[in-house]
Amino acid sequence: MIRLTLLVIFVASASAVSVIFEDGPCPQFRPMSDFDFNSYGGTWYEIAKFPNPSEEGDKAKCTLIEYFVKDFRGKMKFTHVVDGVRKYIEGDLTQVYPGYGKIMYTYTFGGKSKNTYLYVMDTDYKNYAVAFSCRYFKDNDKHQLLSWILSRNKVLEGNALAAVDKFLSANSKLINRSYYVQNEHTDEACKARTTEEITEFFKMYQTNPNLVD
């Protein structure tokens, strides 16, 4: 029954390959409280995501996020594979408010730095996490929704999957599960011929100077 739920989470996402935009400013939401930043550190596998420019829509596979955390700060490395190329980006981490799951990423590229924010909405630290973010494009009066389902393993199943399903059901007005596209962590999906730095993230901010995270 729990394995069937995984199909339910993603069944509507086969054609959901566009970046998710909605009208107006970002909705009101809060990250989880009683958040332990140090326990959140370590390696996370991306199980599913809302398509986004940093991952070239829905093309990125074999996505891995590594956090190196000490107290309220740390480092991160994000990698994925697109068309046989392993791409990566590295940055600094800051827990914005002690006890809350709002994390600031600071990326530097070409001598310029940019801050962006990730909101951990739910996690048990050992098995799963659900993260969310929103970007407001002032010039167009639209916001972009982003969300990720993460796991400590390449497969999300059992009680961890049930916990994610329960959270998404309880927060369906904020996070529409039909927008998720499933990632792949097979040997074939993770094959890469070469490695290069991710630049899509910076291009988005260069072309949208009034973007608000």
TrEMBL record:
Family indicated by similarity: Belongs to the calycin superfamily. Lipocalin family.
Residues in the signal sequence: 1-16
Matching CDD domains: lipocalin_FABP
GO terms, molecular function: pigment binding
An individual GO BP term: lipid metabolic process
InterPro entries found in the cross-reference section: Calycin, Invtbrt_color, Lipocalin_ApoD, Lipocln_cytosolic_FA-bd_dom
GO cellular component entries: cytoplasm
Keyword check for Signal: yes
Residues covered by the Lipocalin/cytosolic fatty-acid binding domain: 42-175
Keyword terms, alphabetized: Disulfide bond, Signal
Coiled coil regions in record: none
Protein name: Insecticyanin-B
